[in-house]
Amino acid sequence: MGSLTAVAPLSMDMYLPALPEMAAHLSAGASFVQLSLTTFLLGLSLGQLFVGPLSDALGRRGPLLAGIAVYAVSSLLCALIPSIWALIMLRFIQGLAGSAGMVVARAVVRDLYAGTAMTRFFSHLMLVNGVAPIVAPVLGAQLMRFLPWQGIFATLALFGGALLLAVFLGLPETLPAARRSPVGLRHTLSTYQALV
């Protein structure tokens, strides 16, 4: 679960040391390369609005596996792209897909635990969320010593592939069909309206 919640901070902070090299390689200004971070955050934010209701309606495994698969593929494509605009678009998709790890991991914890056990598990997840943004730039800088900037995205793709395999083999469905919510835009909007 901790690895799933680490997807977002790793994807945001690991490539920060590579921004100057990326700008030079893609013949783009620093502001355009930084826009790839903004679009990732936008995708991550929007994805959370949709992944949560989907996982409540369809179960946890399907949306999580789909999200991780798209995350891994988009990370690999980020390493292969020839232009800054393709990178910006792919980072948005990467953020949308990466939101599945954050949202579904927390939902799985709520499915499996209650009371003190749930609080304890969430505290472990928060520890990972606190450490990952600190470790990610250091890890990215170390990768840059041996690899070009594309190596960081290839590493994220490998990380996504490993997560996909781990979830596929090790995480059963935790939300029984009887506890699932109806799916639909109207139901989702009414839920958000009740929250507001």
Give the SSE string.
HHHHHHHHH
Helices, by number, come to 9
CATH top level class name: Mainly Alpha
% residues in beta strands: under 5%
pLDDT averaged over residues = 90
| Helix fraction by DSSP (H/I, runs of at least 4) | over 70%
List the domain count as a whole number.
1
What is the fold's blueprint, element by element?
Layout: H1 2-5, H2 7-13, H3 19-25, H4 30-58, H5 61-80, H6 84-112, H7 115-146, H8 150-170, H9 185-195
Helix pairs in contact: 2-7, 3-4, 4-5, 4-6, 5-6, 5-8
Throw out a few tags for this protein.
single chain, globular, mainly alpha, Growth Hormone, Chain: A, 82% helix, 196 residues
A few lines on this structure:
82% of the residues lie in helices and 0% in strands. The protein has 196 residues and is mainly alpha-helical. It has a single domain (2-195), classed as MFS general substrate transporter like domains (Growth Hormone, Chain: A, Up-down Bundle).
Structure characterization notes:
The protein is 82% helix and 0% strand. It has helices at 2-5, 7-13, 19-25, 30-58, 61-80, 84-112, 115-146, 150-170, 185-195. It has 9 helices and no strands. Helix 3 (19-25) packs across helix 4 (30-58), helix 4 (30-58) packs parallel to helix 6 (84-112) and helix 5 (61-80) packs antiparallel against helix 6 (84-112). The protein has a single domain (2-195), classed as MFS general substrate transporter like domains (Growth Hormone, Chain: A). The protein is globular, with a radius of gyration of 17 Å. By secondary structure, the chain is mainly alpha-helical.
